[in-house]
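Need the bound structure for glutamine, inputs here:
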Amino acid sequence: MDPVVGLLALQGDVREHAAMFVRLGARTALVRSPEDLAQVQAVVIPGGESTTMSALALRWGLMEPLRARVADGMPAYGSCAGMIMLADRLEDARPDQQTVGGIDVTVRRNAFGRQVDSFETELELPDVGEEPFHAVFIRAPWVEAVGPQVRVLGRVGAEPAAGTIVAVRQGSLLATSFHPELTDDTRVHSYFLQMVREHA
Ligand code: GLN
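Answer from helper R.:
Posting the output first, comments after.
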């Protein structure tokens, strides 16, 4: 049986991620409770607002079950706010903000600053696809430091942020600062599905 990809549906651009997996023919289910989480073999944490997502995950009793599943090896992918949720350490977090963690990185929230609050750029992600990706960044985080187990998948190529890390993988965990779900390009989702199937 094909694995079911859970979409953490507390807040954020859940529908856009769902549409990508529909296009790829994958099975998905919304995750809003620990019972929902128990039914899925992988989780996607969407873009949105990580402080709200953290508060809702705590209120709905999902934070600990998510941590336990991630620690147990469940594949997870986070875009933007989702990347923040998968980071072990944060800069510029709200004091009460918590993360699921799992990826040994320090992630800075809203890192690109006011002038380049939101921007789009062509990005090289050689592990994921040959042709460059049109990447959409919206009040995006960046990865400020990576642990030894983390594989850097992509860096911004253009100034003023050239060289900053915006895509990482550690084992079965994947995170991007940008939002492939807001484009037509399914290659990041397809790459994640491959990770899920390899794990299953
Ligand atoms: N700035 C948001 C946060 O800190 C993330 C923005 C996004 O997901 N587009 O959660």
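Comments: The domain at 4-199 is CATH 3.40.50.880 (Rossmann fold). The first strand starts at residue 4 and ends at 8.
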